[in-house]
Design goal:
Number of strands: 4
Oligomer: single chain
Largest sheet: 4 strands, antiparallel
Strand content: 5-15%
Helix content: 55-70%
Length: 146
């Protein structure tokens, strides 16, 4: 079963259960069995994705507030220098993310985002001290209470 079909199954079951709450009725035993199987499958997929993420060595990035965005490559070319100045920050103190979630730092990376249709690029304030955020992430990952 494809991911799209599986998502449709999960959403379909959710809709069935919502209807049951509206009419104060019980779901069919078949729907309950399907939901249980789907929840087990989604749990296994979630665990596999978390394991892959952990094995990749990726560290979550904590973003500050959204400052501005560039809607296309030409927009970036035309106003990049002014945008940071008007926001009152240096480009080094920001993180630029394209629509594929990639961090952009150089002109070639912005050109690649343009070529791959990954605009708009959103510019966020980088958190200067993200130690507390990283500690919270690590505690959540290991199950330790902060």
């Amino acid at each position: 079963m494809s991911k799209t079909e599986t998502q449709s199954l999960a959403l379909g079951l959710a809709a069935e259960f919502e209807i049951c709450t509206v009419y104060q009725s019980l779901p069919s035993i078949n729907d309950v069995a399907k939901a249980a199987a789907e929840l087990r499958r989604l749990d296994a997929e979630n665990k596999a994705l978390r394991a892959r993420l952990e094995a990749s060595g990726a560290v979550p990035v904590v973003l500050g507030k959204k400052l501005f965005q560039f809607n296309c490559h030409q927009d970036w070319v035309n106003r990049a220098q002014r945008a940071w100045k008007m926001a009152g920050v240096r480009s080094e103190d920001t993180i630029c993310l394209d629509q594929k979630g990639r961090v952009l730092r150089k002109g070639l990376e912005f050109a690649r985002a343009d070529k791959e249709g990954a605009f708009p690029v959103v510019v966020y304030l980088a958190l200067v001290d993200d130690t507390a955020a990283h500690d919270a992430w690590l505690a959540a990952k290991t199950g330790d209470a902060a």
